[in-house]
Amino acid sequence: MLRKISWLAGIALFLFFLVSCGDQEKPEKISLEKREFLHNNSLAVEQQSLRVAVGGIITPKAGFAYYLQFLNYLGEKLDIHVQFIVRESYAEINRLIMDEKVDLAFVCGGPYVSGHDQFGMELLVAPRSHGGTVYYSYIIIPQESAAQQWEDLRGKRFVFTDPLSNTGKLVPTYMLARMEETPGSFFADYNFSGSHDKSIKAIAYGLADGAAVDSLIWEYLQVTDPALTARTKVMLKSPPYGIPPVVVRPNLSPELKNELRQIFLTAHLDPQGKEILAKMMIEQFVPIDNAAYDSIREMMSWVEAQDADKEER
Questions:
Q1: Can you tell me the distance from the alpha carbon of 166 to that of 90, in angstroms, rounded to the nearest whole number?
Q2: Contact, 135 vs 167, CB < 8 A?
Q3: How many CA atoms lie less than 13 Å away from 128 in the CB half-sphere?
Q4: How far apart are CA 146 and CA 304, in angstroms?
Q5: Same topology for domains 42-130+244-289 and 134-241, yes or no?
Q6: Higher pLDDT, 279 or 45
Q7: pLDDT of residue 87
Q8: Is 122 exposed, middle or buried (0-12, 13-18, 19+ CB in 10 A)?
Q9: DSSP element (H, E) containing 160
Q10: What is the spatial distance between Cα 39 and Cα 165, in angstroms, rounded to a whole number?
């Protein structure tokens, strides 16, 4: 018990250090100051601002600058003030969307499925990255680790990202459930880092033996911070899942929804938009269907059924 408390305290202190000290790459400062509205803009009259949420989980800290650039771009195209909202967990963002305190959000596949099934969260578009609209859960380990397969992590220290994350929590939990195991029965200790880049750093600096992370973020850091990812290695790669989408609240006006969709879908055709997307490592935004997330929905249902079965025993 003392060993577990000591390890969890170490993880917490390390993550606090990461937030306090920041990354070596300094994102440029982007202004989201309020703009003057055009009097003939019906959207500005109907909706005084567009409230957009981005989770601290969805992108590395350094990548936030590019999301801010894209939100500036969005505001310029709509002639409307964009209010940028940051939350550290998917549960908080889903709650804001459900309570209609957020209009648009960048979320993960897991939170989308939960939000869609619980209160009607709607898909707007999805990014196309690395030639497709899918991503993977990477099970990563320290570069010097001798582990070769999932079973080798039994009795080890593991890091998840967010309780609602598909790649950072659901996928490895499903893998364990198929083995009739749980994180508590399989790992000696486990913890939640709060973001994929923090999980990657926890592995790189030897604070855990394994972690489940978003392939898009590991690949992003592979390009922007190769010295960091070089201290880790991908031990397992999951099947593909529907890529983290852009979503809107259920009661957003159809007019505004259509305008937003059009701006997203054509951003890659505009020189300014294309430049911003390139920094985000997104080729373009494309339409996507709810069925793209059925495999995530099936995993959720399977894990929930297993948990219910255990409670009945």
A1: 11
A2: yes
A3: 14
A4: 33
A5: yes
A6: 279
A7: 84
A8: middle
A9: strand 157-160
A10: 42
| Domain spans, the chain | 42-130+244-289, 134-241
Other beta carbons within 10 Å of 77:
18
Count of beta carbons in the 10 Å neighbourhood of residue 274? 14
Amino acid (1-letter code) at residue 273:
G
* Amino acid code (one letter) for 135: Y
81-87 and 49-55 as β-strands: parallel, antiparallel, unpaired? parallel
Q: Tell me yes or no: is domain 42-130+244-289 CATH 1.10.1200.10.
A: no
Model confidence over 159-175: pLDDT tens digits? 999 999 999 999 999 99
The answer to whether 161 and 90 are in contact (CB under 8 A) is: no
The pTM (predicted TM-score) of the whole model is 0.83
Identify the helix (H) or strand (E) that includes residue 264: helix 254-266
CA dist 153 → 33, 149, 199, 201 (Å): 48, 8, 16, 18
pLDDT score for 306: 79
Contact (CB, 8 A) for 106 and 71: no
CATH of 134-241, one of 3.40.190.10, 3.30.110.70, 3.30.1330.10, 2.60.40.10: 3.40.190.10
